[in-house]
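[SOLVED] Predicted holo structure with flavin mononucleotide

Edit: marking solved, answer below. Original request kept for reference. I posted the sequence and ligand SMILES and asked for the 3D complex as structure tokens.
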Amino acid sequence: MATVDPVASPKTATPKDAGLLEVNFCGLKFASPIVLLSGCVGFGEEYTRIEGFSNREAGAIVLKGTTGRARLGNPPHRVYETPAGMLNAIGLQNPGAGYVVDEILPTLDFTETRFIANVSGSTIEEYVEVTRRFDQSPIDAIEINISCPNVKEGGVAFGNYPDMSAQVVSACRAVTRKPLITKLSPNQTDIRENARRCIEAGTDGLAVINTVMGMAIDVESRRPVIGNIQGGLSGPAIKPIALLKVHQVYEVARAHRIPIIGQGGITTATDALEFLIAGASAVGIGTALFYDPMVCVKVNEGIAEYLKAHRLANVSELTGTLTTARATENCAVSG
Ligand SMILES: Cc1cc2nc3c(=O)[nH]c(=O)nc-3n(C[C@H](O)[C@H](O)[C@H](O)COP(=O)(O)O)c2cc1C
């Protein structure tokens, strides 16, 4: 029988240069600044079927958005490739909070990485119900996805309005002492104001950004390609937008010592470094996993190389080191 080399085994592999890459995020120890993003890794087990892939390469994994009751999701098409990105309108397909907590969480290996729930809902009551459910579970942290449409307010997204975002955050804050991360929408006028309100409402961390709304049209049928008409754009196409939003949110969050998971189009170590320099304490990878499931190994190695070359002892020393002449609030419009 072949013996398994415990060092080479993906099950026991940790990122190389662990000391350099370790970060403290909302009091949780992440072995790497990389966070695998919600909706791109199922419920934490999806990529473990791929030879050579290890959850240990990621500091944390965010589970698929979870609602109070099971949801079948939207009609097809649900995903569509675009230049340098993809549109998705999955519609939060998930088996419901009870199933996730009772049936899925017990199957996850919490020694591999940190697991973060992604809470979604159509009403504030639903957000609270799901948050409470995860609060009474072994999950390490709770991320609130405020990009969902509020059915009581006629479908406007909670995350596009600072007042509504703050209401969701304070209601969830009241029912959990686990680290609470709020995922901000880029589809709003002033992300700084929204970040400020979410911090005041008690969030411990921020995830910046969720997808950018977009659409695609089939010219032959003259119909929208996506069954839901509109979808969320992700991947490299949104990276410059995401980077600016992280920088803007950092201008607000740094005074409160609220850490940010920067995300949107990261596919390389250089992308990740840009987000860290802009103000992120951790970096999310989602869409890139679809075409390169081993991307985390390369990103971890590339970040470590950079830290060594710049004589930095830990990745956290890089956070927010951007040099600018002035705050973005005072920047002239482009064009
Ligand atoms: C297919 C798909 C499903 C997603 N589902 C969720 C979700 O359930 N909850 C959530 O907060 N974000 C969801 N997202 C957004 C991602 O978590 C991430 O914020 C976004 O895709 C930007 O990162 P990326 O460009 O690296 O993919 C989803 C993204 C994709 C592509």
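OP edit: The mean pLDDT is 93. Thanks to everyone who chimed in.
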